[in-house]
Amino acid sequence: MAFLPSLSRRKISHEYLAERALRRPSSTIWLNHVCVSTSQFEKALDFYVSTLGLSLRTVELDPTQPSRLHAILVDAEDRDVLELVEADASKPASTNVSQLGFSLPLRSWQLLRARLDTHEHPYRVSGDSLLFEDTDGIVLRVQPLGEC
Hints:
Elements: H1 14-23, E1 34-38, H2 41-51, E2 55-62, E3 65-74, E4 80-86, E5 99-104, H3 106-118, E6 124-126, E7 129-133, E8 139-144
Parallel strand pairs: 1-4, 5-8
Antiparallel strand pairs: 2-3, 3-4, 6-7, 7-8
């Protein structure tokens, strides 16, 4: 047990090994999608589809709260990346998401910038990133992938 010099003289418990395994960085976990609650569901949906360029997979009643809508938006590879959920009007609006990051091929990044200009949507360029806000004030950072 050369890799654990401090434990070489005592018996290693199963609990210790399990805890150690859980603390290791995982290479088998991926972010599936982000869920954003919005008080402006239709405007947010239009923004993410028409301006940002995500594709709409579905809009339906939210299975967890059938009184509100939710939408699943997908990226260019048809992966679910964003779930928009209609905010509960009886609760104060809040968000814990401060920024969403996206990457696009360079040509698509340039087209996004042109769409932002066409829609007169304010943005700024920081380094190689476009920074702008969605309908609920969440900052979006979009970086080009390079020549694609």
